[in-house]
Amino acid sequence: MSGASFFGDMLQTITERGRQLLALAPFGGDAPRPSLEQLCERLLGGNGEASGMALASLILERWRSLDGPEQAAFMTMLLERFGADESRLDAAIDAHRAKPSADTVRALHAAAEPRRQEIIRRLNLAPEGVGQLVRMREALLRMLPERPELAAVDADFAHLFGSWFNRGFLVLKPVDWATPANVLEKIIRYEAVHEIKDWDELRRRVQPVDRRCFAFFHPRLPDEPLIFVEVALTTSIAATISDVLDEDRAQIRAEDATTAVFYSISNCQEGLRGVSFGNFLIKQVVADLRRDLPKLSTFVTLSPMPGFAAWLARQRAAERPDLLDPAERAQLAPLDDPAWDRNPDAVEELQPALCRAAATYLLRARNPAGLAADPVARFHLGNGARLERINFLGDRSPRGLRQAHGMMVNYLYDLSDIEKNHEAFIGRGEVIASPAVQRLAPTTRASQPRSVRPEHAA
Amino acid sequence: MSGASFFGDMLQTITERGRQLLALAPFGGDAPRPSLEQLCERLLGGNGEASGMALASLILERWRSLDGPEQAAFMTMLLERFGADESRLDAAIDAHRAKPSADTVRALHAAAEPRRQEIIRRLNLAPEGVGQLVRMREALLRMLPERPELAAVDADFAHLFGSWFNRGFLVLKPVDWATPANVLEKIIRYEAVHEIKDWDELRRRVQPVDRRCFAFFHPRLPDEPLIFVEVALTTSIAATISDVLDEDRAQIRAEDATTAVFYSISNCQEGLRGVSFGNFLIKQVVADLRRDLPKLSTFVTLSPMPGFAAWLARQRAAERPDLLDPAERAQLAPLDDPAWDRNPDAVEELQPALCRAAATYLLRARNPAGLAADPVARFHLGNGARLERINFLGDRSPRGLRQAHGMMVNYLYDLSDIEKNHEAFIGRGEVIASPAVQRLAPTTRASQPRSVRPEHAA
Amino acid sequence: MSGASFFGDMLQTITERGRQLLALAPFGGDAPRPSLEQLCERLLGGNGEASGMALASLILERWRSLDGPEQAAFMTMLLERFGADESRLDAAIDAHRAKPSADTVRALHAAAEPRRQEIIRRLNLAPEGVGQLVRMREALLRMLPERPELAAVDADFAHLFGSWFNRGFLVLKPVDWATPANVLEKIIRYEAVHEIKDWDELRRRVQPVDRRCFAFFHPRLPDEPLIFVEVALTTSIAATISDVLDEDRAQIRAEDATTAVFYSISNCQEGLRGVSFGNFLIKQVVADLRRDLPKLSTFVTLSPMPGFAAWLARQRAAERPDLLDPAERAQLAPLDDPAWDRNPDAVEELQPALCRAAATYLLRARNPAGLAADPVARFHLGNGARLERINFLGDRSPRGLRQAHGMMVNYLYDLSDIEKNHEAFIGRGEVIASPAVQRLAPTTRASQPRSVRPEHAA
Amino acid sequence: MSGASFFGDMLQTITERGRQLLALAPFGGDAPRPSLEQLCERLLGGNGEASGMALASLILERWRSLDGPEQAAFMTMLLERFGADESRLDAAIDAHRAKPSADTVRALHAAAEPRRQEIIRRLNLAPEGVGQLVRMREALLRMLPERPELAAVDADFAHLFGSWFNRGFLVLKPVDWATPANVLEKIIRYEAVHEIKDWDELRRRVQPVDRRCFAFFHPRLPDEPLIFVEVALTTSIAATISDVLDEDRAQIRAEDATTAVFYSISNCQEGLRGVSFGNFLIKQVVADLRRDLPKLSTFVTLSPMPGFAAWLARQRAAERPDLLDPAERAQLAPLDDPAWDRNPDAVEELQPALCRAAATYLLRARNPAGLAADPVARFHLGNGARLERINFLGDRSPRGLRQAHGMMVNYLYDLSDIEKNHEAFIGRGEVIASPAVQRLAPTTRASQPRSVRPEHAA
């Protein structure tokens, strides 16, 4: 509160003066109100330095009052009017071609930087600028499908955010029942994997001594978790999500836990899409838990397989499926009953077939780029985890059944193998899996993936 | 401490594993120790992602153990081996020339970015990476005079620091007698204008209710002030530094103060040279003080004139000085007595002449770029302050006498005029001064400066 | 968490050693388990000092495992075995009677102190001892109706708590949406005046800029509010609770508020009954709000009249009511319809009569001790507030209708009159009321109260 | 600062109103200024409740302006005017004698409580009251030698402080180089055992990783350490203070330490004399260090023997010393040379004799009460430590030579024996010592001490 009123005060002071001189007065006054483009030019101009904060605040204030089409027009203006200076760029290219050197490269790099990058940096001068810029990109991302040309503007945001939200600037904090409510409500809102219905359920996830939650924060966005992970401390590897979330489960003492189950990882800020935190988060939480609870020896996820059902549907529908033989296909027929999971016979019949199909999917299915087809698998395998176990009916929720016929996966993080697994996956395309999983899908590999980097977590 | 041990733990965990695989083991082992260049390549490589923090820590650890020539060699390696990829850059230029578009510019910009920028970003992954990178640039800046070609490397550090230390990420904090000692000792060490001899003197500057000190901090460098300003709360505009620093001065209640005198501004981090904070610091402190002490109405500096004595010596030595007429030159003769300030006759004689000369220097002397010759004047005038008063024998310290024959200056920050003054100075080269100062040097302007931006504070 | 594990560790260390020596081992071992009485003796004994913390923890641990009758037996033991040492007391009386002096009084005072007071002090040595002692007294208070003899033990708790929870040791903190959830859930739980149904309603009371909440905390009970007050910032004196709590009310800017309405004050710790905080809380919140929002000029409550309906029922039922004349009695007849508040005719008819009756009740009804009959009135008038306004149908909730036929009261805190009003009420029994309220019940005072102190807030 | 201005504001608000009504206006006004006695009566009176904080502040403000004799007069007034109410006390005695019960004891206890105890509690209402009360008792303690009758007043302060500064309310904090300067300067000031000359020496004691310092704080006195202990982490039991304090000593990594040497314990608040903290401090620091550094296995002091030289002088001067035989006396003759410690022959000759004498002193010398003669020995033995080793020339400072001929002692805290040792010392008067120390003074015990509690730490 004090901080807010402070900034308010300063803004009142500085902005009003700046507005008077610059004829920015929002109401009244003879001078025509300057356009956003003019304001952006002033923000960039050496001339405006004394009122940089005032200008930045004013532009952001105006931005917030725009409707959707106007915001898109603002972005188009950034694209068209605040790209690189073409004549300067041409000159830099000529100079470089004439006699290349570190200096000509530097000049070229500077000349090729779109002017809007500096606009974004200067908008950050405004109080709470960084949070507003994240929300601005959120809006921009929503425009992209309709206006793909704005990808160039998005690239500038992404570039700066990658630098600003570098892991070196982030802070890991435990989230528990003593965490401020305005942070906790965001945990409720952003939980993307296993919905949190209300405050009571939230409390069951963060208050018990055998439940933990950790989030990364940026120091200038103290109320905004960037990504968080929920952890269950247990004495064995959880096979189903209800083992973890059941209200009536038996609670254990944290000191008695041997296993940490990471059962949910959620990104919070759509505006930071493409800035990867998950890798660092998991590893830092592993290190943190090991230090506090030396008896913990197993670190494992309980993860969804979001692409499994769609892939399996395609295999079953294909005339000549590459990864499903006719016998397997036949065994999967009970899936056509939408209520199969409540039919004991169907369940019994499907168990071996679904487990085999899931193993095949994870070990051999590839996306067009030649990568593991499942995005969650790509994330954890790329981090160096091992595909440890496939769990039949691990998630009986409607979403779990719809997306993956209820299957869940454990990925194991063994710090002694992380680097080796990572190299194998990224360098040679191998999916490192436990013997049990390998036995489920013993045939020769159908396709060999190429070296790649994982794209996104889930 | 807890943070440190946490990171230590994590590093132990992750680094050791990473080292084993990567054959980085510092002692023993059969594999040859990889070179720093190899480590940097691995840090950049997609392959090393799982061990990015370990690699970054290892590189920084090695860097700290290098001697001066080895550090210079490291920088030269960054220059020569981690510039832009030339063939990629050539291709990007060709593509742009063939059919220019926002996309070809973006590709060009990316291709022209030296690879060492990404190395610097990834080194920031290491615990306390940002502080070590600042110190790394400090070392680099010391190399530059001997190795001007490293300016290209320095430009990359400067570019990233400008973005990371954007004012939007900084926090203003009061520095007082309840501030941690490890911060206060840095105030002692970094005070660049009026030396702080010991802890007792420090206490006199930060503890009394009519003395204030404020600093900017970066959230990830909580023990390192970036820049600080010392303020005296008074009932009139201080004319001499001893008015401010005298041990026996009469203390007043903060609520009774009408005037805030900014008598010292010091940058703390040589490694952040060129990242400008001073402008924002002064304005935010003005806003802060106004809020807390509504009776404060005058905000003024008590500043040195570091270039005055040298300029005056040149004028006096010149055959045909451009800004000193023969009568004035004659009046300044007593300056040749090095102890003139203790000779009442000399003092009386010199007062009018030195005041006139000082006014001339501030109003009309220009540096080769056509700017105000005095760097402190450039800073405050560029911020929109007004040259308010010239103070004879304001600083009788040896340094004050040597640099400026004891003269000091008050610059006035009047928020209603800041923008106008700034425009006048930057846009039209006018030095805005009080009538009293203008009267001291009434002749027509000798030279017209061009529009410029101030370079550095003092 | 760190604190907890630290204490746990220390306890493990110290308690285990202590237990071994003292043969306190909870499981196994040959020695018979010492009784709680023996443990208390040891706690008092000089002999046990080295293990004071261990003993205190052990006693509290045992206490928590007792069932109700056992806890009552423990209290009876404190009463019977740990009173004053009678022979020592007799000797002290004799010495005092022989030759009274400051020293004999001191000896008498010491001898008359029940030994259980020192037990309570030493139980406070245990980690989190103070919180457990508060809960211990809570249990004791529940026993009192059945075991009035334990009042002597309760007096010892009350005496020490009065000293420990002295206002000088308390900290006022704002409670808002950035307050930790474990504190906020206590606000929900302890709200005694206008129930908070869920987290959404809580948020409406603490998050909007024109709603405030403040609580007193003891530094050693950081998660436990002791008492809290809810405040609405408005532009006029609220007359009904729905003005304040309505979900769809128009929100105002805090800076525009002229009036602070204290609409709910709740004590949180039954175990601290009799330790009065409310007086200090209101005055400190008034001071705090005045400082932050200088435009606030009116500080007023919106209070219930919890005893009104019962009093009025007695008056209406009495053969010869002292404060209700027959005409008034007749006008109140529509009250017999339990749904009168939804009947416009009844409402119109009752308004003047109920307002007159309420004014009579507040101005003239006395309890047996000669004090204002209404406990809330006693609290605010005793604090120096003025009875400002009576609000017809200010609270249409079932409880409001049941307790006070929906009437509410505004008490005004005018700092310039607080002391005068307080003196008038406490010293001379006068109820200071606004002219408007006085006009409602103009007859001569029926009874003159005697000087008193208010007992409890509401 | 914010807190201060807040309280200032509130006081301004409340105090001024209170003063007006109570005719307390410090300047001007017709009413005569009330005496401190009148103010104290009002503070006690139910009548003054609304202005309790104002009155308390006013009394404390007046107190601060009193000179020494006036302060003594104030204390005498508390003694004479604010003792117990004698007629009430007499009545309570009569009632008790007539029919004793828990209730008559309770009434007696209440009646025997001097009214000044309630005054002290109410003075605590003032902002920063508790700190001022501690300083008030400091002044009172200085008066006692001249005015022994004030001991009764002192007893009231001591009684309340014992309750308020109960260990359960205190917080242990590490003191290091990141501690606020206003706390650190108090460490410099209060260090009572081995003087800290300046900030550089302070830094050497708190900044290195193998040096630690811990202090107890009261939450309402955050800038005032109550007691602190300095610890050296080492790999062996330090025998001399220069081992610990030498500027050029080799620093070790904290993780490599096996031994924690407590080389200085200092009480900070003379006003809290008699409230014992040292026992708890040492044990909590032991627990804290064990948790952070599991390799630590030995916890030992390096302590002075402040009474040794005086005791030895008496023995040597006595005609028939009880604990010094003629042969020993002869061997001690070189002590008569004041510079013996710089004479190698004298040093060699004295070493065995002084070690024997020191062991005799510690094991057998008794004070008049039959306790160990040395106050530091009494403290540590009473805490359950063992007398581990006697160190010849452990402290060559002038004070060390003067007080103890340079001898120092190690007391060992072994948590498994603490309770047993404590019992032996307190219960049976045995000094538990290592075999090595016992061998130094093998004769039969000269005197048998009685059970006692230690009085004060050193």
Automatic annotation (TrEMBL), chains A, B, C, D:
<keyword id="KW-0456">Lyase</keyword>
<dbReference type="Pfam" id="PF17408">
    <property type="entry name" value="MCD_N"/>
</dbReference>
<dbReference type="InterPro" id="IPR038351">
    <property type="entry name" value="MCD_N_sf"/>
</dbReference>
<feature type="domain" description="Malonyl-CoA decarboxylase C-terminal">
    <location>
        <begin position="168"/>
        <end position="414"/>
    </location>
</feature>
<dbReference type="InterPro" id="IPR042303">
    <property type="entry name" value="Malonyl_CoA_deC_C_sf"/>
</dbReference>
<feature type="domain" description="Malonyl-CoA decarboxylase N-terminal">
    <location>
        <begin position="82"/>
        <end position="165"/>
    </location>
</feature>
<dbReference type="GO" id="GO:0050080">
    <property type="term" value="F:malonyl-CoA decarboxylase activity"/>
</dbReference>
<dbReference type="InterPro" id="IPR007956">
    <property type="entry name" value="Malonyl_CoA_deC_C"/>
</dbReference>
<dbReference type="Pfam" id="PF05292">
    <property type="entry name" value="MCD"/>
</dbReference>
<dbReference type="InterPro" id="IPR035372">
    <property type="entry name" value="MCD_N"/>
</dbReference>
<dbReference type="InterPro" id="IPR038917">
    <property type="entry name" value="Malonyl_CoA_deC"/>
</dbReference>
<dbReference type="GO" id="GO:0006633">
    <property type="term" value="P:fatty acid biosynthetic process"/>
</dbReference>
<protein>
    <submittedName>
        <fullName>Malonyl-CoA decarboxylase</fullName>
        <ecNumber>4.1.1.9</ecNumber>
    </submittedName>
</protein>
